[in-house]
Each structure stands twice: as structure tokens, then as C-alpha cells.
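Closing statement on the zinc ion sub-project.
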Amino acid sequence: MSEALHIVCPHCHTTNRVKSDQLSSAPDCGQCHQPLFTGHPVALDDAAAFDKHVLRSQIPVLVDFWAPWCGPCRMMAPAYEQAAAELEPRVRVAKVNTEVAQALGARYNIRSIPTLALFVAGKEVARQTGAMTDPAQIARWVSARLPG
Ligand code: ZN
């Protein structure tokens, strides 16, 4: 018996139920039929979409709070892309452009960027400020903070 997990679609933000042993078999969204995991960070600049992923996902959600004008953010972006491919489907990897989503930056009191925040069951469990430019370092940081 494998448990079903709520997985929020990165395309249409519908909540899907996926058996945990199906997560790594490239499941598609029941609503829009696109892959539930793309190997790329999903942009959650819309607060409603952000809330759906962070509050409803039954896998941890990693968020990179960044901005286009931030040099260290741009330096970290390629490593973050690679880390996404490595961490999915255990973790939903997302990014928030704090210039677009100023309310989200304020809600989470983001004072400097890039800031990585890890959410489990809607609660922030870890935060790291400053660029990590090695994908393995990002993956290790996340893995060390996952529950269980
Ligand atoms: Zn979908």
C-alpha cells in the first residue's frame, strides 16, 4: 500500500492526488495533462498560486526569493535549476520574484536576497540567505532539513 499525496500542478495549480510510489514515474496533471514535475523551478509570483503550493502540497516546497537586479541571485540561478532536477519529485522547487511579488516578500520578511526558504506542510522550517552556486550544496542543504 502506498499513500496518496497531494501534488499541486506547476502549470494550472490544481491539486492532484498521486500515489507516493508513482511520484518518480513522471505523473501528469489530471486537469491540464501536463507533467506535474518539470525539473525546473516553478515561478510562484502570484500569491494565490504560491499559497496553493505551500499550503496544499504534501511534499516540501523549496522557494528561492530573488529579483532580476540581484547579481548573486543570477549567479545562483543555474545551480538552482540543476538542484531542481535533482530534488524533484521529493521536493517542489519554486522561485518568487520579490520585485513582482512584493507582498510575499513582505509576508515572509525577506530582507536580503537571494533567500532560500523550505516549507513543510505550510510552515517554514529553514531559511538560508546568500547565494549557493553549487547544485550539490543546495541539494544537501535541503536534504539535511527534510523531516524523517
Ligand atoms: Zn495542471
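The radius of gyration is 14 Å. With this model delivered, the sub-project is considered complete and its resources will be redirected to Aim 3.
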